[in-house]
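Work Package 4 report. The design task specified in the project plan requires that, given a folded chain encoded as structure tokens, an amino acid be chosen for each position. We show below one input record used in the internal validation round.
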């Protein structure tokens, strides 16, 4: 058996909740991993804080410039393969409140670069009944309970 060392990667995401508690998620295609849904966000740039990275990614992927990051919901450490490279990702996920809306046309035009193939708002009931993978898998439970302190997954 050949063991490949995993490359460490830091990332941050924003769980954007509308006034009714629905969360905005992007859909990513099957490839090295199955189809999955994840919050806006991604890898940090050199020297970038988790909060700054989450906000930069949200603006790039949605075009929304009026969101404010709230409390840290959770940290999540997970392994996957990204562009053929084994990765160990260290991720921070923050809460934010915002209106229900679509990404801007400018952001949508860049979705191909980020491998985003769809998006939608998910109600808590829809999250609980999801049949495709969610990142993180415990997202429905986290958003249903909104823990008082950040949890580590």
């Amino acid at each position: 058996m050949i063991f490949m060392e995993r490359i460490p990667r830091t990332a941050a995401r924003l769980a954007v909740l509308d006034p009714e508690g629905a969360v905005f998620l992007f859909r990513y295609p099957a490839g090295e991993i199955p189809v999955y849904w994840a919050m806006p966000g991604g890898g940090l740039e050199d020297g970038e804080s988790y909060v700054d990275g989450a906000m930069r990614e949200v603006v790039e992927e949605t075009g929304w410039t009026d969101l404010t990051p709230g409390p840290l919901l959770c940290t999540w450490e997970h392994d996957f393969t990204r562009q053929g490279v084994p990765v160990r990702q260290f991720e921070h996920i923050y809460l934010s409140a915002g209106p229900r809306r679509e990404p801007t046309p400018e952001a949508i035009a860049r979705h191909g670069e980020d491998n985003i193939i769809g998006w939608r708002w998910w109600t808590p009931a829809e999250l609980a009944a999801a049949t495709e993978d969610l990142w993180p898998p415990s997202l429905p439970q986290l958003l249903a309970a909104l823990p008082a302190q950040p949890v580590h997954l």
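Residues 50-62 form the longest helix (13 residues). Validation will be extended to a larger panel in the next phase.
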